[in-house]
Design a protein that fits this description.
Blueprint: E1 2-11, E2 14-19, E3 25-29, H1 36-48, E4 67-76, E5 79-88, E6 94-97, E7 100-101, E8 114-117, H2 129-143, H3 145-167, H4 178-214, E9 221-226, H5 234-240, H6 242-248, E10 259-264, E11 267-268, H7 269-272, H8 275-297, E12 302-306, H9 314-322, E13 329-333, H10 337-342, E14 348-353, E15 356-359
Parallel strand pairs: 3-13, 3-14, 8-12, 12-13
Antiparallel strand pairs: 1-2, 1-4, 4-5, 5-6, 6-7, 9-10, 10-11, 14-15
Helix pairs in contact: 2-3, 3-4, 4-8
């Protein structure tokens, strides 16, 4: 897959931007707070409907404007695609593919495959379970259209069930309705768990050899899917936690409470790993993502690296850069020295300053 062109109108600090990236390595450099990350964010949003930063659509619209437009042209398996996305302050985003509006954002997913790596991702190991669940969800949403629908439905049911739990003390007559939500929670949640099981199994097979290589053969990384409940036991556990749910007004059963365990030599590196081990493990996960996309889609993803090299030592920088190969890559950084000193080849160089882009 490759990006052929990107156009931004009133996105973040850009009034307008026209970009035709090279199929190879593209470096965007400049001081902090000039708009480098915004370019990568726009690309990711246009291909996945979500910002890697989280937040709301209106936060991405240029100050003083009512809407923002992103247009991206990509080629995947020699088939051209054009994606148009309108972000609006007071309404849901509008999306069109090849000029035809789509009704559900999930219809967009599967066209583009991105692997996004930012300094925040280096904290995926030591931070809480929510970030590791988000890691699984963001990748699976690009690879599996059914997962997108099930995740959206599960999130909606979870929210409705939570609202009902909070209302029950004031409306006891609603007690009989909770079984409807329990049934849907089990239905959609079981599908999510099954998809995550397959994902972690595939990821584990790739991550182990990668981590062993970049640690110089000293360490082997194992990933364990720590399920909150087994699919076959979902309904029973919902019943078991019923009183607790009502008391605390929270749903305690389901994949929204899953986690990923990461172990080196049997030691849980989330709690006991050194900073170096945690960063190497995070890098291994991202490199495994690239290979998993290749395996699932038959093509390499577009790699988006947001100032991540400044957070890695020389050895890990080299491991990351060596893994790029023939993948189209968009990299941001505050300068070019690290790339030049390492002898890394850059196909196209851009300077970013105050929301303006200049090809060097």
């Amino acid at each position: 897959m490759r990006i052929d062109s990107v156009r931004l109108d009133n996105f973040r600090n850009y009034e307008t931007l026209e970009l035709h990236p090279d199929p190879g390595i593209n470096l965007f450099y400049g001081d902090n707070a000039q708009g480098k990350t915004n370019i990568l964010e726009a690309v990711y949003v246009c291909g996945t409907t979500r910002s890697h930063r989280g937040g709301k659509d209106k936060e991405m619209i240029r100050f003083g404007c009512e809407e923002s437009h992103i247009r991206m042209e990509v080629t995947k398996k020699e088939i051209p695609w054009r994606i148009d996305m309108h972000l609006k302050k007071s309404r849901a985003k509008g999306i069109a593919v090849n000029g035809a509006p789509i009704r559900r954002a999930g219809e967009l997913l599967g066209i583009c495959n991105f692997v996004f790596f930012s300094p925040e991702d280096l904290g995926i190991i030591k931070n809480g379970p929510a970030q590791r669940r988000r890691f699984m969800d963001m990748e699976l949403c690009q690879l599996d259209a059914l997962y997108v629908r099930d995740l959206s439905a599960y999130s909606r049911v979870l929210m409705q069930r939570g609202s009902l739990l909070r209302d029950l003390p004031f409306h006891p007559e609603l007690e009989d309705t909770i079984g409807v939500w329990d049934l849907q929670l089990e239905q959609y949640g079981t599908r999510l768990i099954r998809a995550r099981e397959r994902f972690v199994e595939e990821l584990n097979a790739l991550t182990g050899p990668i981590h062993e290589r970049i640690s110089g053969g000293r360490e082997s990384l194992t990933i364990i899917y720590e399920k909150n409940t087994e699919p076959d036991n979902f309904a029973a556990q919902i019943r078991e936690n019923a009183k607790r749910d009502r008391k605390l007004k929270l749903t305690h059963t389901g994949p929204h409470r899953d986690d990923l365990g990461l172990f080196i030599g049997g030691e849980d590196i989330r709690r006991f790993g050194s900073q170096g081990q945690q960063r190497t493990a995070a890098l291994s996960l991202k490199l495994a993502e690239i290979e998993l996309v290749r395996k699932r889609s038959g093509e390499g993803p577009v790699l988006l690296l947001d100032d991540v090299l400044s957070e890695l030592d020389r050895a890990r920088q080299r491991d990351l850069l060596d893994s790029i190969g023939d993948i189209q890559t968009l990299i941001t950084g505050t300068g070019t020295d690290a790339f030049l000193e390492s002898g890394f080849h850059i196909d196209r160089l851009y300077q970013v300053k105050a929301g303006k882009l200049a090809q060097i």
